Please model this.
Amino acid sequence: MEKYITSQFYRNPKVVKRKMKLKDYKVYYVNVKVDGIPYRIVTDGHHAYEASIRNGAKPEFIHSSVTQREVDDKPEYFLSEFLENESDWTYLGTSKRVWPDCYRRSSTSKDSCSKNFFPEYDPYEESRKLMNEAFEKAASRKSKK
Model:
């Protein structure tokens, strides 16, 4: 199976609900290699992915050729700018870290990882909680009508 990874955790419930209604399940990605291991970085469509899961549908993964050209033209720049961020990288739809010994990941070497000082931290937890609360409120309003 492909290794789709992301560092985006927040999902706006209103956006997800709209995507569910439209049945918009398009998730865009680019191919990269980090330390020789191929990954697919989700560049857009995080809300669509959540909508597909909630609707019990299959997400439509689409290779982003425009962004891929940027990756291919300047891979070091793309990886350093895209991968060196303030969030954990996880496999899409899970809280499993891509690089478990790192909080942030640089494209250059394993030595550039800083230790994760929050080993029990689940980056999806707060987002899931907020989203579930929003959907429950909407469902209860609907049932009262």
